[in-house]
């Protein structure tokens, strides 16, 4: 058991080191994005939502086709991948890189590796469910996809995408400030109250 834990820890450390090496040119930008996403200042959520809203308003105004939108998005990623590693040290000053920043960059890369592992684990569990309980797998998939299709039919595609992107960008800050755990706890308490009331009525 200990050998398995050590092997997993060593593999996690190796994957984290590899990711740090690949993202080294993006280090300064990642640290700034991390501060914004975790809401280190009270006005960061407003800036975040303002930027997202402006981007989606531009998409709504220009109304590009799917092919044009995908092409422009990939072109933007290519330009960023080329320009950011070259310009970031001049803008932020790589000589000001501190031990604290390096430690935070390491934590971010470690969290990204752990998130990738979780997603891979969920994907493997899904295929395990398909092999072990195929009926439950197909019923779950059909019901889930039908529900998603119904929501997509009721809500405008662009607005639905805006809501999803906004939630994903706000999630780290909501989690950091305990807002999600607060409302999840409230929901659990309400559910427990309803269950207790049903038990009393059944008695």
Which class do the helix and strand fractions yield? mainly alpha
Q: Give the ordered list of helices and strands.
A: HHHHHHHH
Count of helical segments? 8
Span between termini: 47 Å
Describe the biggest sheet?
none
Please tally the β strands and state the result: 0
What is the mean predicted local confidence, pLDDT?
Answer: 85
> What percent strand?
under 5%
Stretches where pLDDT is under 50 for at least 5 consecutive residues are none
The global form is globular
Computed CA radius of gyration, to the nearest angstrom: 22 Å
User: What fraction, in percent, of the residue positions are helical?
Assistant: over 70%
Protein architecture, described:
There is one protein chain. The chain is mainly alpha-helical. Helices cover 88% and strands 0% of the residues. It is built from eight helices and no strands. It has helices spanning 2-22, 27-37, 44-62, 66-93, 99-132, 134-154, 157-176, 179-202. Helix 1 packs across helix 5 and helix 5 (99-132) crosses helix 6 (134-154). The longest helix has 34 residues, at 99-132. It is globular, with a radius of gyration of 22 Å. The model has no long low-confidence stretch (mean pLDDT 85).
Looking at this protein, list some descriptive labels.
203 residues; mainly alpha; 88% helix; 0% strand
List the helices and strands and how they pair.
Blueprint: H1 2-22, H2 27-37, H3 44-62, H4 66-93, H5 99-132, H6 134-154, H7 157-176, H8 179-202
């Amino acid at each position: 058991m200990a050998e398995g834990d050590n092997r997993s820890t060593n593999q996690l450390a190796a994957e984290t080191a590899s990711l740090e090496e690949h993202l080294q040119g993006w280090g300064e930008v990642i640290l700034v994005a991390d501060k914004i996403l975790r809401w280190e200042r009270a006005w960061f959520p407003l800036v975040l939502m303002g930027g997202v809203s402006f981007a989606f308003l531009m998409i709504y105004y220009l109304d590009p086709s799917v092919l044009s939108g995908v092409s422009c998005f990939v072109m933007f990623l290519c330009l960023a991948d080329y320009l950011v590693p070259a310009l970031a040290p001049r803008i932020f000053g790589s000589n000001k890189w501190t031990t604290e920043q390096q430690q935070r960059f390491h934590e971010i890369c470690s969290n990204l590796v752990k998130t990738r592992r979780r997603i891979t684990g969920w994907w493997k569990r899904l295929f395990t469910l398909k092999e072990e309980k195929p009926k439950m797998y197909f019923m779950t998939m059909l019901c889930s996809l039908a529900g998603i299709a119904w929501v997509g039919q009721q809500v405008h595609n662009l607005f639905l995408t805006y809501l999803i992107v906004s939630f994903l960008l706000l999630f780290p800050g909501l989690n950091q400030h305990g807002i999600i755990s607060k409302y999840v706890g409230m929901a659990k308490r309400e559910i427990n109250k309803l269950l207790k009331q049903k038990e009393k009525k059944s008695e």
